[in-house]
What we know:
The protein is built from 8 helices and 3 strands; from the N terminus they run ααβββαααααα. It is mainly alpha-helical. Strand 2 (54-57) and strand 3 form a beta hairpin.
Amino acid sequence: xxKRLRDLVIRYVIILVIGAPNLYLIYKIFTPLTLYPLYFLSxxxxxxxxxxxxxxxxxxxxxxxxxxxxxxxxxLLLLLNxxxxxxxxxxxxxxxxxxxxxxxxxxxxxxxFAILITKSVRIFDLTHMATWYFLSTVLVVVIWFxxxxxxxxxxxxxxxxxxxxxxxxxxxxxxxxQK
Length: 179
């Protein structure tokens, strides 16, 4: 099997394995990686305890649910990275930047929510909904475009793979014969 085709198959198998079932692997990894740093940051400023996936700040409970972990955002960044042909070094750096950048911003976001909810539930609700519906998508797009610029990614996700597969397909060989 040609190297580029083998690489393409491996990339898409990884996407299927990580994406199935319901991003289980992403949540398994990122739930504790989100919960414990948030607990640590909160405990620096507040009297804080932790019970399973709930951080208790005084009489306020902050449950870290899958939406807080934002597994779909991590998966989208992984998907964009793995559906774009690039060399391994560029891919590793891009993935580390994208996933690491989103991870740090997400921890800071959740910590700011923890502060807001201790101060005012009304402000918390407003900012929580605004980030949930708008900012999270914008953040993923900004991080991806930053990775594209920083790591000089020239290819277009999915499109380049489809173009390559078409160039290797029987349809393309028939079209060449007809000319």
